[in-house]
Design brief:
This protein is of the alpha/beta class. The protein has six helices and eight strands. The strands form two sheets. The chain has a four-stranded mixed beta sheet. Strands 5-6-8-7 form a four-stranded mixed beta sheet.
C-alpha cells in the first residue's frame, strides 16, 4: 500500500529545483528532465525514488550517463544514498518504504570534441520510438550549442514530428523560433517496398533555430 501511494507522491512532489522525483511517467520523461537541467547549467541533479520506482531511478541515471551526458561522474563512488522513510497509508496507518537517491554531477564541461559530435548529427529522423525520445534528442542537441536542428519524418510519422517540435518549444525551450515562417518543407519521396516495388510517400522537414 505504501509503495503504491509513494509512486503517486513522487510524481507530484515539489522539492528543490534540482531534484527529479521518479513516479509512474515513462522512463524517457525523467531522462529528459535530468538532461535538460544539466544542459541548462545545473552542477548537480538528484534522482530520487521510493519503493517500486527505485529500479526506474537506476535506469534513468544510467541512461543519462551512458547515452546523453557522458561527462557525468560515475555515481557509484559515494553519490548514491539508500534508506527508508515512513509514509502514511490511506487507512491512517504508517508504513516504512525504501528509497534511493542518486546524484548526477558533471565532471567537466563538454569538450569541443563532444560538441562537434553533436554538430555532425543534427538531423533527427522520426520513426516508431516514443515521442519523448525524439524530444529528448532535440533538446539535447539544442542545449549542446547547435543553432539549427532539423526534424524529418515520412508518412504516418509526420504528425509525430509536429508533436516533437511543439513539445520541445512549449515545454522545454520556449526561446526556439516558430518554424512556421519558412522553416517547414513538404515533398514526396520514393521508397522501396518489401516486394521490390517502389511507392511515393509524403515527407516533412522542420528546421528549428535557436
Amino acid at each position: 500500500m505504501a509503495e503504491n501511494q509513494n509512486e503517486q507522491s513522487t510524481s507530484s512532489s515539489k522539492g528543490a529545483d534540482n531534484i527529479i522525483y521518479i513516479g509512474k511517467k515513462p522512463l524517457m520523461n525523467y531522462v529528459l528532465a535530468v538532461v535538460t537541467q544539466l544542459n541548462n547549467g545545473a552542477s548537480e541533479v538528484i534522482v530520487k525514488a521510493r519503493g517500486n520506482s527505485i529500479s526506474k531511478a537506476v535506469d534513468v541515471a544510467d541512461i543519462v550517463r551512458k547515452r546523453f551526458v557522458t561527462s557525468i561522474k560515475d555515481p557509484s563512488n559515494g553519490n548514491i544514498n539508500i534508506g527508508s522513510e515512513e509514509l502514511a497509508n490511506e487507512d491512517g496507518t504508517k508504513s516504512k518504504v525504501s528509497f534511493i537517491q542518486i546524484s548526477a554531477s558533471c565532471a567537466s564541461p563538454q569538450s569541443a570534441q563532444q560538441q562537434s559530435q553533436h554538430s555532425e548529427d543534427k538531423t533527427i529522423y522520426i520513426g516508431k520510438k516514443p515521442t519523448m525520445n525524439y524530444v529528448l534528442a532535440m533538446v539535447t542537441q539544442i542545449n549542446s550549442g547547435l543553432q539549427t536542428v532539423v526534424v524529418k519524418a515520412r508518412g504516418n510519422s509526420i504528425s509525430k514530428a509536429v508533436d516533437v517540435v511543439e513539445i520541445a518549444r512549449h515545454r522545454f525551450i520556449p526561446a526556439l523560433k516558430d518554424p512556421s515562417g519558412g522553416g517547414i518543407t513538404i515533398k514526396s519521396e520514393e521508397v522501396a517496398n518489401e516486394d521490390g516495388t517502389k511507392s511515393k510517400v509524403s515527407s516533412m522537414q522542420i528546421s528549428i533555430k535557436n
